[in-house]
Design a protein that fits this description.
The protein is of the alpha/beta class. It is built from 9 helices and 14 strands. Strand 2, helix 1 and strand 3 form a beta-alpha-beta unit.
Length: 297
Amino acid sequence: MKRIVVLIAAAALTLTACGGNEAATGSPSCPNGEVRFGIEPYEDPAKLTPAYEVLTGALRRELNCPVRLQVVQDYSAEVLAMQNGKLELAQFGPLGFVFASRRAGAEPVASFGDAQGKLTSYRAGIWVPKDSPVQSLADLRGKSLALSEPGSTSGDALPRAALAKVGLDKSALKLDYAGGHPEALLALTNGKVDAAEINTQQLATASAAGTFDASRFRQVWASDPIPNDPITVAGSTTPEFKAAVRKALLNLTPAEVAAVGKFLDVDPAGPLVAVDKSTYQPLFDLADTLGLSEGDV
């Protein structure tokens, strides 16, 4: 599915703060008169936008500053936007954060917690039709596999790493980058491929929407747990702004992040929890093991 850059600026986010206080332009929490928050469309933007407008609306209140949501085209565009000073905040996939850290100086601030306040995780997976002869990754030799898009943690890097461990490189099977997690799932359900990556986040979303019947398919591989997506701040921003963002994000209530959390298999949602670069060290190690660079995003 062809996707274009979608720039969404909710009018409500440009209104004055609750209680009649005007946005504190020039203050440490609002140095440029607005904060730009980027996300990559890991799900249909029409579904993501209302959920993120709840989160960014609450963030506007905490920062006393307009927050503009930007849904960019893909992982690469999001990294480039932060590198070029067009995003102060961004949510990245775990591997996307590795490249954003190295290329754009992104610093992780918070991620999504469960009802007990613990950092949540998800898993990558590869699924096949229930009646498929494929029983393991090794059986995918000569078969077609739908992946999401280059640079995806669960939809690209981890499946390819798992295939490499059983001696299958990209020449041993047909890899089809479908354009996203929903598209990879659809390629499988529509019979276009022999197998597809379906992570636990997409599995939960599609099952709840009635677009995936797990009883008709089998999972032949699952990854170890992956720490959930970090919300990051641009390294070029001031220490005062970074501190204000951290405080604001950690002050959000579970209800204010719940709509986004459902897309990340976090239900019931808890508050956002603090994270740092060490939280995602296994993804830095994965990138190095696979020899991945920014050009692979």
